[in-house]
Amino acid sequence: MYKPLLTADDIYKKEFKTGLRGYVIEDVDGYLDQVIKDYEGFEREIDRLKRELEETKASSSVGIKREERRVEPEVAPAPANPSNYDMLRRISNLEKAVFGRPHNEE
C-alpha cells in the first residue's frame, strides 16, 4: 500500500527560509493549510476504507461458514390425500431439518 511521504503534521511544521526576494509568508501558509486539509481528508478516507474492507471480509467469511452449514432438507411431494402416517412422517422430517437429529437416535 502506498504511504505518503509527508503527513499533515510534517507539512504543518515545515519552515521556509526567507531571502531578499522570498515568498510572501501568508501565501505559503495559506497554501500549506489547504495541503494539510487534503492530507487529513485522505487519511480519514483511507482509514474508513480499511475499516469497511475488514468488515466486509469478516462478514463474508461468516456468511460462507453459515452457508456451508445449511443443508436443505429433501421433502417429498405431498400426496393428494395424505394419511395420518404421512403427515406425522413429514412433520418428523421437518423437525429434524429445523432442530437437528437427536444424539441417541436408534
TrEMBL record:
Keywords: Cell cycle, Cell division, Cell shape, Coiled coil, Cytoplasm. This is Cell division protein DivIVA. Residues 57-84 are annotated as: Disordered. The keyword Cell division applies. Pfam families: DivIVA. It is found in: Cytoplasm. Residues 64-73 have a biased composition (Basic and acidic residues). It comes from the Bacteria. GO terms for biological process: cell division. It comes from Exiguobacterium undae. InterPro entries: Cell_cycle_GpsB, DivIVA_domain, DivIVA_fam. Coiled coil: none annotated. Its main location: cytoplasm.
